[in-house]
Amino acid sequence: MRFSYFVKYTFLILSAIYLVLFPIYAFAGVQEETAKGDVAYKEGKMEEAEAYYSSALKMDPDSWRIMRGLAETKFRLNKFRETKELVDRIRSMKIIKRNIVVVTLPGSSETFEAEMVDENVVPPDDGQNNMRNYLDGEEVKPVLHYRLFNLKTGKMLLIPHMDAKLKYKGVPRRVYDYVTELHVKVEDKLIDKQGTKGPAEMVEIKGGCFQMGSNQGAASERPVHEVCLKNFKLDKYEVTQRQFQSYMSHNPARFKGADRPVERVTWHEAKNFCKKAGKRLPTEAEWEYAARAGTTTEYYWGNDFETGKSNLCDSTCDMNISVKNISDGFPNTAPVGSFKANPWGLHDMAGNVYEWTSDWMDDKYYRNSPKDNPKGPKRTNPSDRKGGGVRKVLRGGSWASNVDSQRSSARKGFVVDYRIDLFGFRCAL
Q1: Which helix (H) or strand (E) holds 73?
Q2: How many contiguous H segments (helices) and E segments (strands) does the chain have?
Q3: Which of the following CATH numbers is that of domain 2-94+174-178: 3.30.70.260, 1.20.1250.20, 3.40.50.300, 1.25.40.10?
Q4: Cα 204 to Cα 367: distance, rounded to the nearest angstrom
Q5: 18 confidence band (pLDDT: 50, 70, 90)
Q6: Which fold has domain 195-424?
Q7: Does the model's pTM come out above 0.85?
């Protein structure tokens, strides 16, 4: 009986000790595994670094510090999908201006907030040369400390790694920006690996005559005039990032995704892509003819804007032109084909990205535009911004434009080397 009581109470005591000490030892294990991962990464031993970081992340699954190290490692190992998952987790975290952590010390349930000043500090030790880490002729490991600024007391603290449990309150802006750069690199790698998926689909457009322009829009859309076109072909979708990257060997897009439209494209880049693909940019008249798809209304579906027909500046759009009562499901660009095609089978002729055309922009061109196969005004004066000098025509509106800009006749002109995340294109033949 006495022996059984002894065993029972011994077990309870040991369990209590374990429960007290396990968090300390566990956190010390996190720091040790992370530090080993850092060393292995610096030495170029990526497989070892991956193992150490992975072990640390299992112990502390919400640490952006460990996730960042593991993401960098997996990127070096060409494990791009796994890298993307880690990067996306960090980018979903709250951004903080200062590197604020919540600190818990051993044997205490109280916490305090502090700013992380330095993650790895080796404080002086009785005059010994800590840079070489020698003591009495024998090599020893340095004791790494955190340098923390206590936000309540205003005091600077040096605390050994194993003596402090830290919880980050968010991801610092500098880290977020760095991870965003890594996000761009890994997305480009993934897009490159996916390839082109073959040649772009094109829609056969039968030639005919139509009324170009609108008396309801801006002055540059007037007067309404008859235009007649020959047969031509037009890309079914806006040019995607995977297509652009395969031909041009780079991807300027801000909003990465293989099947998203490429944007931040200059007119010259759009023209060169179409040329490499054995195509050309459409004329402005071809573009409007295809966008209307045989209709005479302001939009191909009618005279009034309808929700769910296109990607525009909706309630998720951070601009003063946003339409607060509409949500199209996309805060920026949408994968091509996300919205229903017009009657001729062409997608995103309204919204998503503005599309470059081959025509120079002249606000008064419609007054004397030829009837048959117009190709826009001649470039007469390169300094004339209003008369076909420096601007090319863009059509279709974008994810950041208002309802009016998505009308079939709406037109804008921008300089040919202008680069912004609203501008894309499709090719004609």
Answers
A1: helix 64-76
A2: 8, 17
A3: 1.25.40.10
A4: 30
A5: very low
A6: paralog of FGE (formylglycine-generating enzyme) (3.90.1580)
A7: no
